[in-house]
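I would like you to sit down with the record closing this message with an eye to the fold:
=====
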Amino acid sequence: MDLRFVGFDYPVLQTLQHMMDTVGDEPDATTAPTRTYVRDAKAMAATPADVKEYPNSYAFIIDMPGLKSGDIKVQVEDDNVLIISGERKREEEKEEGAKYVRMERRVGKLMRKFVLPENANCWDE
């Protein structure tokens, strides 16, 4: 049903109309996003980064609290996608009788992906 024919022509309703028009066009379960994709998307959203451009290089400044440098994995995928990742695990209770009353620090996967320029030399140190 086209909502414009009944006098509704607002942007929100246009979005609703588009959603109703595309029902049934979704991919089936074999091509739908996986849990890994959703987990990676959350990890990227929760990992802030700054990128500095120099004349001949880039610097990536990424917040990964609670991780040691040895816990951070840096790799290049598809020749020009830089992936920086790590995982912060929950600390084990060390003191007998003590328990957390509040836990606000994030645990789980931290990750960022950056598409590098085509002419980036990823292999020189």
In short: Residues 47 and 110 are 6 Å apart (CA to CA). The helical segments are 11-21, 35-45. The chain has a mean pLDDT of 75. The two ends are 60 Å apart (CA to CA).
